[in-house]
Structures are given as C-alpha cells and as structure tokens.
Amino acid sequence: MVQRHRHYYGEDPSQWGELFLPDLPGGGAHRGVAVVIHGGYWRSKYGAELGEPLAVDLATHGMAAWNLEYRRAGNGGGWPHTFRDILAGVDTLQELAGPHVLDLAKVVALGHSAGGHLAVWAAGRGRLPHLGLEAEHREMNAKDDGVRLTGVVSQSGVLDLAEAEKLNLSDGAVANFLGGPSSEFPGRYRYADPMAALPLDVPVFAVHATEDEDVPLAMSTSYVEAGRSGPVPARLVTVPGDHFALIDPGSQAYRKCRGLVQELLR
User: Fold this and answer.
1) Residue range 243-264: average pLDDT?
2) Which of 171, 236, 233 has its CA nearest to residue 203?
3) Is 228 exposed, middle or buried (0-12, 13-18, 19+ CB in 10 A)?
4) What is the pLDDT of residues 125-154, one digit of tens each?
5) Per residue in 22-55, pLDDT tens?
6) Residue 62 confidence (pLDDT)
7) Which helix (H) or strand (E) holds 56?
8) CA diameter of the chain
9) Domain locations in the chain as residue ranges
10) How many CA atoms, within 13 angstroms, populate the side-chain half-sphere of residue 244?
11) Of 117, 121, 123, the residue nearest 150 (C-alpha)
12) Which residue, 229, 221, 223, is CA-closest to 201?
C-alpha cells in the first residue's frame, strides 16, 4: 500500500511536490528519500506526470519518493526561477520530515534528461559560492545551507550545458532555458552548468541509454571524464533502450536506475 501526499512549497501553481510513502511495518522512520526530478528540456509542456510512475514504483519497492514539480521555461521558470524551485523543493523535505516520519540522513535524486541536469546541479549547491560569480549567486538568492543530496542517479542527463548549447539540442533548449546565448550570459551559463561545480564529494551515477537520440551519450561521458580526479568520481553506466526506456518502470534500463537508487539509500 502506497500513500501519497501533495505539498506546496510556494504560491505558484507549479511549486509543489507529491510524497509517495510505503507502509512502515512496525512503525519507525522512512530511511532516506528519493527526489524524482522530471525532464522535458526544461519546457512547460512537460510536467511531473513524467516522474509519477517512477515515484510510485520506488515507493512500491519500499522507498519514500518526493516527485518534484517546478516552474519551467514558458510558465514562469527558466533563469533563475527553476533553480530556486529545485533547491526550495528539496529543502521542503525538512518541513515534511516530522509529520511524515522521514529520516533525511540519505536524500538521493533521480533525474531524467533535463531533470538529470537539475539533480546533478543541485548536488553541487555547496560549490556554487566558490565559482566566483557573485552577481549570479545574488540573482539566484541561493542559500548555501539546506538539505544536501547524498547521491544522484542521472538518467541521460544534460550534464554539459556548454556542449548542449553548441549542439543546439532540442532546437535551442539551453538558450531558451537560460534566457539567451552564452555569449550574452557567460556567468549565468557557468553557474548553471554541473561541469563547473566539479569535483563533487557525493556519488553520481551517470546512467545513459545506448540508443538515446534525444540526449547524446557525450553529455554523460564528458561529465564523468571531467570529474575523474575528484574525491568521489562519477560513474558512467550504460543501459539498453532509448531515451524514454529510462522512465518506463517495466524496462531493464529503469530497473537498473532503481537498483542504483536503492544502493545509494542503503
């Protein structure tokens, strides 16, 4: 039996998450939380319905799952609001921990495509003040404290924004998301790029589908290569299938991701 509870973390209609909780036999606390961050190239026509089947599956397998919605480009998101929402949505777990008996010692993000970008970016929040980009940090109003992710499973994540812009992925999705080209907003691009926050001190599994035609494998391989010398090197994991096999709970590709989330929560 899975319970579900919707909570808002802001006044915008897109600032909410849904907490999926498995039954706790004999009481106790839910040990860790998986934060599900959906993709869709940061565009408003794609929403948290993409992450719901994953959150249900994780809860069915005994894990508390927080399916996070956020403002996207086209409905009040983009720079800097999407980034603020991701951090605020993750930090809301502090308020939910008591009422829902959550143990936040382990908080792991599972992010698909653009959600993979946001998940890995959020894992680097502690590195953001050290990028030397004070104007961007002020514009973000970013808090340096809050709930820290203890691991990430990126599912064909857009982890190299500079290369994604060069490749013009999804018809200029990066420029659409960040409000213009990198030539106009170089600091904004660096602040938003997970590559800039390397090295991280938390584990990242960069899972990528071998037949993915939406996000090139290079998005994951370049990230893993760049972080190879860090204290906790990211790991590349390839799985069979296309871009959407990763969010199909019945697929081998997704089952691998679920296993990695379980590993990180243990």
Assistant:
1) 98
2) 233
3) exposed
4) 998 887 888 888 888 877 667 999 999 999
5) 998 777 889 999 999 999 999 999 999 999 999 9
6) 95
7) helix 52-60
8) 57
9) 2-265
10) 3
11) 123
12) 229
Tokens 């680097």, located at residue: 124
* Residue 261 and residue 147 in contact, taking contact as beta carbons nearer than 8 Å: no
**Residue range 2-265, CATH number:** 3.40.50.1820
Would the pLDDT of 264 be above 70?
yes
- What are the residue ranges of helices labelled H in 92-217? 93-100, 114-123, 134-140, 161-166, 173-178, 186-192
Encoded tokens for 26: 């004999």
Residue 133: closest CA among 191, 79, 194, 197:
191
pTM over 0.90: yes
Q: And the tokens for 135?
A: 């104007």
3-state SS string over 252-264? HHHHHHHHHHHHH
DSSP string of 118-129, one letter each residue: HHHHHHTGGGGG
Omega before residue 99 within 30° of 0, cis: no
